């Protein structure tokens, strides 16, 4: 049976009339209620499922309320527990609070009293979860206003974001590493009708298969080694909001099938669970690989690809939008709260560089230079060697005159010079020389033969 994740409450009271009163009251408030008059049955329910709250009587046959409270603290420490009793004493109230109960209520109680206590308790729990989630993602959460651009390519991309954001369609963001795929995903969420709910981000490449499944869908206590308590997954935390699955192509074929089920039915099961959980989550996924090639090689499901790629977005690499570099440099300088500026000479080097690591590489270079310089302005002396070397390499390129040039001859001379330089550096070791030029040994040997180099 499918259940909405809207606040699940377990009632445990051996007095049938009290159980029924609480059941009717809380269901009328819109909670998903499970009720039991048997404390042993309640323990079994706690082992099989996850509840946001447990309301339990203290004095019961077989297992009393204090034992149930201890069991909840053991297997689901985030679950709230409210104790109710007709035989309350100061000592029992103190014991309940020391064991971790949220509140202690005496029978008979007023209907409004239990209604208010439950509402406040669950609101406090949700607030605690949201604060925890914000702390986890504070380093990567950005609003659309924090994307800096001047280039036409980025303008065209950002022009369509508001329209995409207003839909519930799944989005596949592609682009090289470091281009800002998560930043774009955050912008889509923040511009959407889901912005008041959670955006949860996870990098699929950083988890082994079993652990990734647990992170996404949650698990039940004892379902695998190390599962010491019941745990909610990120899909439950993102209910009503969005989930960002970065490096989606690193997900195993087995787990891809389970993700496909979520896309088709909006339901899943926790690892080791037996209950279907229904959620409303928008999926924004990202990859730096060509998923069509991954499909052809059998590493990615074609049916999942079409489910994820409803709205495709491609982020161009930084080398194709170099007009954005000065704005990004200024942003990273301001972000560091530094008064140091970048010289025009350094900015020219930045504009010429290829930035294989894209925006992330640029930010790291700025941070490194600010850390190491003792001047008020960053000069070429502060620039990393790989950028300076790239600039030196460009000097080999001659200016094109009206007479034109023999491009094949120019490229051939450059290639021949590098081959000879690599052999010299490696003392004639062809294997090492090939590595210096990032070539396979076979390709290197072919090029030597091409230019008659011995």
Please summarize what this structure is.
This protein has 454 residues and is α/β, with parallel strands linked by helices. The chain has helices at residues 16-28, 39-48, 65-75, 90-98, 111-137, 152-165, 181-190, 209-217, 234-237, 253-265, 291-296, 302-308, 325-335, 344-352, 358-372, 385-394, 407-425, 430-436, 441-451; strands spanning 3-4, 8-12, 32-36, 53-57, 80-85, 103-106, 171-174, 199-203, 242-246, 267-268, 277-278, 282-287, 311-314, 341-342, 377-378.
Total E-strand runs? 15
- The coarse overall form would be elongated
CATH architecture of the largest domain: 3-Layer(aba) Sandwich
- Unreliable spans are 134-143
Annotated CATH topology of the largest domain:
Rossmann fold
- Residue fraction in strands: 5-15%
CATH C-level class of the largest domain is: Alpha Beta
Q: Please state the CA-atom Rg, rounded to the nearest Å.
A: 30 Å
Can you summarize the main beta sheet? 5 strands, parallel
Helix fraction bin: 40-55%
Overall average residue pLDDT: 87
């Amino acid at each position: 049976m499918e259940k909405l994740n809207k606040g699940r409450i377990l009632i445990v009271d051996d007095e049938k009339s009290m159980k029924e009163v609480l059941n009717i009251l809380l269901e009328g408030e819109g909670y998903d209620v499970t009720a039991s008059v048997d404390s042993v049955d309640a323990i079994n329910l706690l082992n099989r499922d996850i509840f946001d709250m447990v309301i339990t009587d203290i004095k019961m046959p077989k297992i009393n309320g204090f034992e149930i409270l201890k069991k909840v603290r053991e297997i689901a420490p985030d679950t709230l527990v409210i104790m109710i009793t007709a035989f309350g004493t100061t000592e029992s109230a103190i014991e309940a609070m020391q064991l971790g109960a949220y509140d202690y209520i005496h029978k008979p109680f007023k209907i409004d009293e239990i209604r208010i206590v439950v509402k406040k308790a669950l609101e406090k729990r949700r607030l605690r979860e949201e604060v925890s989630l914000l702390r986890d993602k504070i380093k990567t959460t950005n609003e659309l206003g924090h994307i800096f651009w001047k280039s036409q390519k980025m303008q065209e991309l950002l022009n369509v974001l508001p329209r995409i954001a207003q839909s519930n369609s799944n989005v596949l963001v592609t682009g090289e590493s470091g281009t800002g795929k998560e930043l774009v995903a955050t912008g889509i969420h923040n511009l959407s009708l889901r912005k008041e709910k959670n955006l949860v981000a996870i990098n699929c490449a950083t988890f082994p298969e079993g652990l990734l499944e647990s992170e996404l869908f949650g698990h039940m206590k004892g379902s695998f080694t190390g599962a010491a308590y019941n745990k909610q997954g990120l899909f439950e935390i993102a209910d009503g909001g969005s989930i960002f699955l970065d490096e989606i192509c690193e997900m195993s074929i087995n787990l891809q099938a389970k993700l496909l089920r979520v896309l088709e039915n909006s339901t899943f099961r926790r690892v080791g669970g037996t209950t279907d959980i229904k959620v409303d989550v928008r999926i924004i996924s990202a990859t730096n690989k060509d998923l069509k090639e991954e499909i052809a090689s059998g590493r990615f499901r074609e049916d999942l690809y079409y489910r994820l790629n409803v709205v495709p977005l491609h982020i161009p690499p930084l080398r194709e939008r170099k007009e954005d570099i000065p704005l990004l440099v200024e942003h990273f300088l301001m972000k560091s709260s530094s008064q140091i500026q970048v010289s025009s000479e350094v900015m020219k080097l930045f504009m010429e560089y290829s930035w294989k690591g894209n925006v992330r590489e640029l930010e790291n270079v700025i941070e490194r230079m600010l850390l190491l310089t003792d001047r008020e302005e960053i000069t070429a002396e502060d620039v990393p060697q790989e950028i300076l070397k790239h600039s030196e390499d460009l000097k080999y390129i001659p200016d094109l005159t009206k007479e034109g040039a023999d491009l094949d001859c120019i490229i051939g001379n450059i290639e021949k010079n590098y081959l000879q330089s690599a052999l010299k550096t490696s003392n004639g070791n062809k294997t090492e020389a090939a590595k210096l030029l990032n070539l396979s040994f076979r390709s290197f040997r072919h090029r030597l033969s091409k230019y008659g180099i011995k």
